[in-house]
Amino acid sequence: MSTAPLLDVRRLRAGHGASVVLEDLSFGMGVEAVGIVGRNGMGKTTLCDTLVGFLPVTDGEILLGGEDVSGRAPEKIAGAGIAYVPQGRRLFPSLTVDEHLAMLAGRTRGKRWTPEAVYDLFPRLAQRKRHGGAALSGGEQQMLAVGRALLLNGRLIVMDEPSEGLAPTIVDVLVDAVHRLVDEGVAVLVVEQNLRAAVRMAPRQLVMVSGRIEAEFTGDELLTRPDLQRRYLGVGADDGAHR
């Protein structure tokens, strides 16, 4: 990781209306994969929505490459370099795979990520390019959601629960994709309930407790220490690896 963080979140405060969810939240990351784990209700999705501009920042800063992007509209944050793969995928049921990617294809000429590059990363999508979003399996939908985000050619991709409801073979595909992105210079922030999937995607894990980053561990530490799983995730050794 470089000395200056690509993403530097400083004393962030945000929430829903008068309800404060994130309070004094800080962390930094470079061109790497970083996981954020924690019990339900700790503010993980709120953090994602705040980073990409869907929720307003009431205090603190979000610096991307040293530039403060907090308070900008979502499209301005996307233009600055943060792409989002939301929980639930949010695809258009009636649009085909090709049509989803075509919506952003005009901005990709001469850039690393084009629809053709997405099909190279996810060959299954190339086989299903004429199928509508509603006709895709959950795994195919998630590949398409990732591919759509890649077409923004950002510096950081935020993924909220990317492995949710997916078969192990599809999780393998996503893990390989995350590693490839980092190797190519794209940072990935992964919010996950599935601890084993989170650790496979990101060796560095941040734990959220009550709207703050409470602790940081390596993935191996979290997987091999039941006491940490019980303390921070509320699960035992046997089921903690599957959250």
From TrEMBL:
<keyword id="KW-0029">Amino-acid transport</keyword>
<dbReference type="InterPro" id="IPR003439">
    <property type="entry name" value="ABC_transporter-like_ATP-bd"/>
</dbReference>
<dbReference type="GO" id="GO:0015658">
    <property type="term" value="F:branched-chain amino acid transmembrane transporter activity"/>
</dbReference>
<dbReference type="GO" id="GO:0005524">
    <property type="term" value="F:ATP binding"/>
</dbReference>
<feature type="domain" description="ABC transporter">
    <location>
        <begin position="4"/>
        <end position="235"/>
    </location>
</feature>
<dbReference type="InterPro" id="IPR003593">
    <property type="entry name" value="AAA+_ATPase"/>
</dbReference>
<protein>
    <submittedName>
        <fullName>ABC transporter ATP-binding protein</fullName>
    </submittedName>
</protein>
<dbReference type="Pfam" id="PF00005">
    <property type="entry name" value="ABC_tran"/>
</dbReference>
<dbReference type="InterPro" id="IPR027417">
    <property type="entry name" value="P-loop_NTPase"/>
</dbReference>
<keyword id="KW-0813">Transport</keyword>
<dbReference type="GO" id="GO:0016887">
    <property type="term" value="F:ATP hydrolysis activity"/>
</dbReference>
<dbReference type="InterPro" id="IPR017871">
    <property type="entry name" value="ABC_transporter-like_CS"/>
</dbReference>
<dbReference type="InterPro" id="IPR052156">
    <property type="entry name" value="BCAA_Transport_ATP-bd_LivF"/>
</dbReference>
<dbReference type="GO" id="GO:0015807">
    <property type="term" value="P:L-amino acid transport"/>
</dbReference>
<comment type="similarity">
    <text>Belongs to the ABC transporter superfamily.</text>
</comment>
<keyword id="KW-0547">Nucleotide-binding</keyword>
<keyword id="KW-0067">ATP-binding</keyword>
